[in-house]
Amino acid sequence: MRTKEITICCNCGYDQANVNKQMELLEPLNSYFKVYWNNRIDRHPDVYPSFSKLINDSVVTAPTEMVIWINDRVTPTPADVIHLVELIDSGFAVASKYSTAFMAVTKEVFRKIGWFDERFYGGGYEDDDFILRLRLNDMAYYESQTAEYLEARILDIPDKITPLSPKDGAQCSKSLPHFNSKWRQRPDAITKIIPEEKYVEYDKIVGESKPEISMLWKKWNQSDLGVDCRFPLAGESRTKWFCYLQQHNGAPIKEDGKWKEYRPVLRECND
């Protein structure tokens, strides 16, 4: 599969100059793809109840099968985007250049495993949930932190943190309880016990499954995880819920061709 057209979603909703800069940096992509822009500042320059809702909205309103979203603190390059497209075309279901802050997917992923869970009100843990679901469905993920990114929260730069988030959901006050309810965590397993919320309108918009895409997906153990992990400056791998991590950089450990897991990811609910 060779992708010829992509949709890029700049997720900054409060600073037009920031969006303009990202678009300018990526202008050379027009020589490689038909590029559509689906920017939050044009579509919904207001507060979303969750990061999940922001992502789902960017996907359902995108005109192409492949969608790439970019956080406001990412400084993207054309090479980053080209690499993401190549990774998806080569069989990774999901690929990132800075975790969920700079990520590429096809709509087929959402047709297969469901949408980002909008019950993670205020934001937080929706990315952990999403990666757990990729593992549960045996789908390959390319996880990296190779892009240039400003860790404003860790570096305590408040003026670089988006003001467009619900105040009553700050510091994961509502998203963490939902994560702990959805995933039962025991030493011998982490188990999904609450099914995915259904978003029927989203399903209608993206249409029927495209097996010609999913049939090319690699399996989970063919994932490439923890590429250029920057822990502790950045968060450790989102596979931390089930994989052993290297202490010095937070990247998962691979042994004998398999990712080393300290507990399986299981399901006890019907999606």
- The number of E-state strands comes to 14
Mean of residue pLDDT values: 94
Distance between the termini: 29 Å
The 3D shape can be described as globular
CATH topology-level name: Spore Coat Polysaccharide Biosynthesis Protein SpsA, Chain A
- Supply the number of structural domains: 1
CATH class: Alpha Beta
Report the portion of residues in β strands. Answer: 15-25%
- Main sheet makeup: 7 strands, mixed
Tell me the structural class. Answer: alpha/beta
Helix content: 25-40%
Low-confidence stretches: none
Across the major sheet, the strand order is: 2-1-3-6-5-7-11
Which architecture does the CATH hierarchy give at level 2?
A: Alpha-Beta Complex
What is the gyration radius calculated from CA atoms?
18 Å
Give me the oligomer status.
Answer: single chain
Short description:
Helices cover 27% and strands 18% of the residues. With 271 residues, it is an alpha/beta fold. The chain has one domain: Spore Coat Polysaccharide Biosynthesis Protein SpsA, Chain A (Alpha-Beta Complex), CATH 3.90.550.
Report on this model:
By secondary structure, the chain is α/β, with parallel strands linked by helices. Helix content is about 25%, strand content about 20%. Strands 2-1-3-6-5-7-11 form a 7-stranded mixed beta sheet, sandwiched between helices. The protein has one domain: Alpha-Beta Complex (Spore Coat Polysaccharide Biosynthesis Protein SpsA, Chain A). The model has no long low-confidence stretch (mean pLDDT about 95). A hairpin with a 2-residue loop joins strand 9 and strand 10. It contains 9 helices and 14 strands.
